[in-house]
Structure prediction request, 536 residues.
Amino acid sequence: MLKLYCFRLEKVIFFIGLFQFSSSYAQNQTITNDSFWETVEGQPIYSQGGGIFQFRDSQSGSPKYYWYGVHYAEAETYRDDPSVTLERNHFKGVTCYTSTDLVNWTFEKQVLTPEAVNYDSNPTWLGRMGVAYVAEIDQYALFIQHGKNVMIALADSPLGDFKVHRHIDMTGRIGTPNTGDQTVFTDPNTGKSYLVYSYGQGRNKIYVSEIGVRDGKVDLLDLTEIFRGASREGNCMFKYKDKYYMAASNIYGWDGSLAYYLVADDIRGPYKPTNEMLIMPGSEQDYAHVSQTGFFYTLKGSKEETVLFCGDRWAEFAGNGLGYNQWVPLSFKEDVPHFNSLHAWNLDAVTGNWTVAKTNNYVKNGSFEADRRHIPSNNKPVQEQLLGWHTEIIKGNKIATNDPSSPVLNYFNTREDRKQVVGEKSLNISDSVPFERRITQEISSTEFVDLPDGNYTLSLKIKNNSRFEQLKLYASSGGQTFEIHLDDEHPEWIPVTLESVNVRDGKVTVGIYAKGQNGTSAQIDDVRLEMGAIRR
Prediction:
């Protein structure tokens, strides 16, 4: 017993020390969202519904970050042709990527293969997984949803190969054979790992169970219900400044969602506010950068403790943009986490410091993919305005969720459209009567992210007919307005660029002004505000 205890303690100390290793890659490496990621070798990264864990390399003995996730066949298809949204999912394996700086990743191997789970004879769902080191047996345990059960696979090394150990029917524990969404969380201070999961039907209850060994088998040692309320998915947990945060998303299928959270002093609670998740400030304008809560990673650098929100964008099944992984840094004010919706940002894994990248696009929901339905919508979620944008009706039919004469504010792109612009949706400007309107977004410095003064480029893509009296793109800042007229007909999508937008005092209004007759129509997509000259 003493020998096992000492071995476990060594592992715990090692876990804590991993935050402080140096790296040749460190110092302001850029993470770019809204794109398909690649390894350092230039190969596609396919990793969804997983997590990042810290283990020692079994060959070199050096510390590494191990990123596990599921590779679906549809992720390849959509990456090759994002003009088609796919319906079904086909498991190709659990991938493992390693890194020393959380930005540059190397593909190691498939650590759980279709053959290991007899996928060809039982082509069922596999997803929502994570890996825990189980000290009592010196094994690595992979927990993954497999059909209607929780499957556990074991390996001697974090690189596998993982072999099926057992399936757990959760009925006797929570009342359903399956969990809802689940993740693995390892407490950086104790080294203990936990499965965080929801009730399998309706997902209105969330549980935490410690992972360990019972009767010679890897098992869930206990069960604590930490939430009972509105249905939630994407259940995951992180720790920051010795507080535990439970986070989740709405039940929106494959689509993005607001990010919700609870906070506690102990992993088993009580979590506050009781059974009432709070919206994470900053996630409202674009539904957490058009993603679901996937997992978090807390980086304890030499200077800062930084929490990474690692969102899953299930683009191949939702058609909601490019890139499957949307990672942003969180900021904190007391115990309130703030979501910083960034397109591009820099991370130093040694110090823990992060900064906004010069290539960041400051527009929220610029490709209009956050909105799930035609807007205004009288269905879940009831919504009058496009997320991140405000449409002011100067003349024409008013916006209303229950009025059939209301203008529809977004357009569902055709497959041909999607070969030119990103995602299923774009901004729609039209009405059944003569109209005049402004569509605007206010962009300004926040407490945590500056909008630096300087020259910016505002760009978009547009197609429109010839019935506009006036149509223009503009930006206003510091008492100046910069604009470009778009009145001419553009039957096919074209790019439009407004350069030298002079931003002052850390705020700018970007907008489209439109005046036209009934039957006038324009679609706008992929709006960007970037510092300096546009990249072509």
User: Anything to note?
Assistant: Helices lie at 2-17, 73-80, 171-174, 287-290, 315-318, 415-418. Residues 96 and 109 are 6 Å apart (CA to CA). The longest strand covers residues 490-503. The chain has six helices and 34 strands.
